[in-house]
Amino acid sequence: MSRASAYAVSLGTAVLLMLFVIMPLGAVLIESVRLRGPLTPREMRTAVLAALERLEPEPRRTLLARWGDEVTPAQRMEATAATLEAMNLRVLWDRKAPFDQQIAAAEAAVTGLTENQRAAFTAEFPVQVAVLHKRIALAFRVRDRLSPAEFDTLRSGTRSGFGLTHYREFLGDPRLRRAGLHSLFVATTASLISMVLAYALAFAVNRRGTRVPSLVRFTVLTPLVSPPIIMALAGILLFGRQGLITRGLLQERLGLIDADVTNLYGVSGVIVAMVLSFLPHAFIILDDVLARHDGRVEEAAASQGATAWQIFWRVTLPLTRPGVIRAALVVFILSMTDFGNPLVIGRGYSVLAGVVYDEIIGYQNSSLAAALCVWLILPTLTAYFLFERSERRKRFATGAATGGPPELPLSAMARLGLGTAAAAVCATIVLFYGVIVLGSFTRVWGVDFTPTLEHYRWQGAEAYSGVGAAQRLPLIWSSVKIAGMAALAGGIFSVMIAYLVERVRPTGRNVLGFIALLPGVVPGVIFGVGYLVAFNNPLGIRELALTGTAAILVLNILFANIFVGVLAGRATLQRLDPAVDEAAEILGATLGQKFFLVTVPMIRHVLVLATLYIFVHGLVTLSAVIFLVSPDHNLASVGIFLNADTGRYGLAASMSVAILVIVTAVMGLIWLAERHGPAWARVRLAGG
Amino acid sequence: MAYLQLKGLAKCFGPVTAVNDASLDIASGEFVTLLGASGCGKTTLLRMIAGFTAPDGGEVWLNDRRIDPLPPRLRGMGFVFQSYALFPTMTVADNIGFGLRLRRRPRQEITERVAELCALTHLEGMESRYPHELSGGQQQRVALARALALNPSVLLLDEPLSALDAKIRALLRAEIRSLVERLRITTVYVTHDQEEALSMSDRVVVMDRGRFLQVGTPLEIYTKPATSLVADFIGTSNTLRAKAVPGDRIMVEDTPAEIQVPGHLRGLDPLRVCIRPEHISLGRPGTGPGPAFTGTLASYAFLGQTVRSTIITSGGASLLVDLSTQEWLALKLAVGEAVAWRIQPGQAMIFADDGTALGHC
After folding, report:
1. What residues of B are in contact with residue A598 (Cβ under 8 Å)?
2. In b/e form, how buried is each residue of A395-408, taking b as 16+ CB within 10 angstroms?
3. Is B360 exposed, middle or buried (0-12, 13-18, 19+ CB in 10 A)?
4. Whole-complex ipTM
5. How many CB pairs under 8 A join A and B?
6. Which of A78, A93, A201, A262 counts the highest number of beta carbons within 10 A?
7. Contacting residues of A for B68, CB less than 8 Å apart
8. What's the 3-state SS for B26-85?
């Protein structure tokens, strides 16, 4: 029955999405309000009294009496002091004196009590003995009469409760507050610069401001598919203490500066690295907006007598404003949540995302990290959703993309300015990539520039994944393996979700579609922290833990990136005739046959795109997976970050180059297959 | 002797009733057409027969077996879609052989069957082409061949010709009709084109707003419409107001000329009279036999074999009249001239105000 199988598949997909998208995100929220720490003496006493209440009166009395007799003199003295404190009496002897002196002083204090006080003391003393010395024994004694949570609290003497303490910590702790302000400053600056640059470049590309638009486009978009922190790494190689330009040129050749003092480390380096890394994200949005923009509007303005300057400020810019805001917001979110670039090139300039990384990797304080994650994105995401909502209401578009750009000529000044900007940005990007390649073939950067291949031998533990000699695998191949698995499974899974939502149309399909898109708007660092806290000890069952396995990496990469395939698949299916599916059905095809024999061949270009996207992102992603790698299952992107962070620039560069080569090769192969391959390999849908 | 039975099928989409209590017995080998304007529920009814749409109520029986709980793939029907819905990634041969391949028939058998169907639908030589390399008419033939490949118990066609131009449409209409006649396949055909419905079907079901207005042979539908809605929808009709007067006569358009009607119609006022344009004759005032109505020629259009003229009656109604070109030329009328018009005897259809047919006169 195809209806039954449709239900089963929809249900299975929903369960998977709940487990691997909703649960990790929910886990971040739960983790952020989880409190751990020792109980105060007062809370401890309450817990002990509650446990004692569970015993029958007679056994309780004998137990307390026995414990009172069992204690050593030193323990008796401690309990005496605690009892006096509990009675709100001053402890009059020196608590730092040697034990024998204290014991004598305690006995003297007890004998000095009044009749009433002595009665109260006799009642309280056994309780304090239990609190101080017999808490664990008591816990096990009444274990079967306590809930697991009560037992844990009593046994460990620590609280496991919930509260907003970690959120308040961010506001109260000057270290965290400063990091937060740094993040805001860096992200604001980077997004403003990226927005202006991306607009200029997109304008140049779409309005004949450059003679080689496709070359500019290609160069500017390259960082999209590049390894992480490559810009910070290149920045160090060029402008660091041993930098090619700072030391080699400005200090040693020209004697202008001291590279140890004047270099790119710090806030300026962070901003440069972020702008270059996230410029393509802004560019892709603005390029699309300007390419769809119908130039007849500008021509109409010109026919009314507007100057080029007036046309830009009064017509073009207002019409493209939504794209400008969206581009700035995207770069802002990416910069806020980026910790790779600041940690590598920031050198003491701490940002909030970096603190999240430190709290988890350095202090295992995942609760505080989770709360900081929420602080990190809550304001931006709110702003983003508000923006999208307001846009949906007004949405001014200049017709369908019919007209093409305006044919008004650009002034020579504008062409010169745009051309120069495009050339400068492209040259910078090429220079940054070039120095990475150079660095990968250089023995010790800044010290010994002998050409060498040694960094490509990937020697030393820093270049390997797996601990035992038999399992050792160069990080690159470990990355390819894990990204490959995620891509193969995720590509078909994302197309399947698109098919479910658009064709099978089960109840709640819109929720299904929405959940699949969530990882697209949630920053990677949060998705990574979510997997860490959700699958470290899921539901308290140790055997279900995924941390430390390869599976958690595959799953994280898969679910973080399926949204691309889901979006593209749904868009394509919406354009295709749904009757094709019904035609297959009435000819006898089951759900699986309809999907694999009819739908997948029709949208195979989406399948290829989705698979490729997941693969490339699996190779270059850092923010999510860094919390999930283990010595047995490590990734090249993490290796690049750690090696760059510890000054092994050659190794970091060689792995970056290797990733670039693999990505280029795979994309080139697909391009070739599409252009010149046999018919079955041509992924673009002919006709249709 | 019903082969395909629809028993009280009903379907609502939210507040809209798409199909309401549709019951119909279709004999084996019969060609039945569901005819109606767009949105009348005919496609929904067809999709319920196929199993694409689950009915809210009612049953579908095929050969004395209840099939409405079955999914489409187990019903053994053939379906031809308005959009053809060919598999764009498969060749013509693969499209036609798709159902056979799903059933794991031997390769030899598939090849033979595909060749046979290509011959039947005049697709020889097209076997290795892709759908986008075919013309609309050829794509339609592939869709038909694919639907016939599994020897379906019932062939369902959903406006299969609506995307084609007029010439191909007429050609394919004849081809489909002769094909299903030869193969003796029970066929349900959905269309909004009355010419298609009248020319192809054994029986026509006229639908409006989810209800059956009339079920009958094309001739019955055309000559004896059950209601004024059917008369309006089938062919072109002039509807005029009328009232009954003593002596089994009615007065049309308040014009004094009265017509004799069969039976007694008093008390059913107001009445409506429908007359087809070809059932009115024109003449110059004062000529011709018997009583005549009067009017003025407002305009005319030359259509080839006929001339369609618009007359404004003395009562102010507008009336379409078709004359053969020869007759028209013989009359030598000019726009604005007064004319006399007559209803050919027995050709006016009389309806009560609620649309019920009351007879001819």
Report:
1. 87, 89
2. eeebeeeebebbee
3. middle
4. 0.84
5. 81
6. A201
7. none
8. EECCCEEEEECCCCCCHHHHHHHHHCCCCCCEEEEEECCEECCCCCHHHCCEEEECCCCC
Exposed (0-12), middle (13-18) or buried (19+): which is B22, by Cβ within 10 Å? Answer: buried
Neighbouring CB atoms inside 10 A of A379's CB total 12
Which of A303-307, A545-549, B107-111 is most confident?
B107-111
Report CA torsion sign: B121, B127, B130, B135: negative
Q: What is the DSSP string of A612-631?
A: HHHHHHHHH--TTGGGT--S
Cβ contact, residue pair A2, B103, below 8 Å: no
Which of B82, B89, B130, B133 has the highest number of chain A CBs within 10 A, making it the mutation to test binding with A? Answer: B89
> A 243-282 residues with CB below 8 A of B?
none
Q: Which of A284, A290, A313 is nearest to A301 (CA)?
A: A313
Contact yes or no for B46/B158 (Cβ under 8 A):
yes
Q: How far is residue A102's CA from residue A99's CA, in Å, rounded to a whole number?
A: 5
Look up residue B227 and give its DSSP letter. B
Q: B139: Cβ–Cβ under 8 A, 6 or more apart, which residues?
A: B84, B86, B131
Model confidence over B9-67: pLDDT tens digits? Answer: 999 998 899 999 999 999 999 999 999 998 899 999 999 999 999 999 999 999 999 99
Asked if residues B24 and B215 have their Cβ atoms less than 8 Å apart, the reply is yes
Strand partners, A35: A161
Q: Cβ–Cβ contacts within 10 Å for residue A451, how many?
A: 8
With a cut of 80, say whether residue A448 has pLDDT above it.
yes
Residues 6 or more apart whose CB falls under 8 angstroms from that of B258 comprise B245, B249, B250, B251, B252, B291
A587–chain B Cβ distance below 8 A for any pair: yes
> For residue A688, what pLDDT band results from cuts at 50, 70 and 90?
very low
Residues of chain B positioned with their CB less than 8 A from the CB of A597? 98
Q: DSSP state, A686?
A: P
Locus of tokens 């006569």 = B249
Widest CA span of chain A, in angstroms? 106
Contact residues for B124 (Cβ-Cβ < 8 A; gap 6+): B118
How many Cα neighbours within 13 Å face the side chain of A421?
A: 18
Tokens of A65: 């009496």
A 10 A CB-CB count for A11 gives 11
Of A93-102, B192-201, B228-237, B262-271, minimum mean pLDDT range: B262-271
Q: Which residues on chain A are in Cβ contact (under 8 Å) with B132?
A: 686-688
Stretch B93-99: mean pLDDT, rounded? 95
Which of A585, A589, A686 is closest, CB to CB, to B130?
A: A686
Go through the domains of chain A in sequence order and give each one's CATH number: 2-32+462-687 (1.10.3720.10), 37-162 (no CATH), 168-396+404-452 (1.10.3720.10)
- Whether B52 and chain A come into contact, CB under 8 Å, resolves to yes
Q: Are the beta carbons of B79 and A583 separated by less than 8 Å?
A: yes
Q: What is the pLDDT of residue B257?
A: 63
d(Cα A598, Cα A115) in Å, to the nearest integer? 94
- Smallest CA–CA distance, residue B40 to chain A, in Å, is 20
| For B47, nearest residue in chain A (alpha carbons) | A582
Query: How far, in Å, CA of A69 to CA of A81, rounded?
Result: 17
Which tens digit of pLDDT belongs to each residue from A128-183?
A: 888 888 888 888 888 888 877 778 788 887 777 788 888 888 888 889 999 999 99
Q: What is the pTM of this model?
A: 0.81
- Quote the minimal CA–CA distance from B94 to chain A in Å: 11
Q: For chain B, first and last CA: distance in Å?
A: 37
Cβ neighbours of A575 in B, within 8 Å: none
